[in-house]
User: What shape does this take?
Amino acid sequence: MSQNHPTPPFSQPKIAMPGLTKEMQPVPDHGESSYRGSGRLAGKKAVITGSDSGIGRAVAIAFAREGADVVISYLDEDEDAAETARLVEEAGRKAVLVAGDLQSPEHCRKVIDTAVQQLGGIDILVNNAAHQATFPSISEISDEEWELTFKVNIHAMFYLTKAAVAHMKPGSAIINTTSINADSPNPSLLAYATTKGAIQNFTAGLAQMLAEQGIRANAVAPGPIWTPLIPSTMPEESVKSFGQQVPMKRPGQPAELATAYVMLADPLSSYVSGATIAVTGGKPII
Assistant: This one.
């Protein structure tokens, strides 16, 4: 991967939620031309939510190049999801697309059932899909917005995990995407940051609960990462300087997170459970 990563200021215009990759300036790097696999996940079957774009796409590319088949779970971004599927198949692995809203417990169970039916099982679950929106004051956060954020970010994680564990064998892995906001909450992302704190605790408790079954649970805590979520949910002024607040003075690219997920999914990481890996451009999490 080139070390010439894009740095602020950015001239990215506001885009409609949830945003498409092609609308971004510059287009994020998901590791399309840089990630090289070495068989670390050979024969594994993975479900990755929110894998149409951003971090999820980077993880799908890496997992496929490491030898895993992938269920690509996404909301309705068909164009982006099809491109992720193309990249997975280009790596010689099976890609299964499942569109739908993870707010629904029934749809969460459908995602897992699809993996079992079409991949023949599930070894890795990456709970990555998320919703966020920016509000300057608590009075502007509607009841519906608060509930939506919790349904997508934490309730879905519970439904997906509960369904997946029933099919998982010893050696399986669950990886949840939390955030630097779990430790350093951005007040304008109050609902989102609160769910990310919940994800951190969910992961820590889950790791202890599943240890005797031989199933590991860990989390990745990204800092500012350049994905469609950013220009579709944040004010243009914030997007212009996005990433400047961390020591590296830039946002991370999705490709820069892929190795963290691969490491946590790798069977060789068999003693790593209940951990959170920070990928934050040098800003410590406590």
Observations:
- The two ends are 29 Å apart (CA to CA).
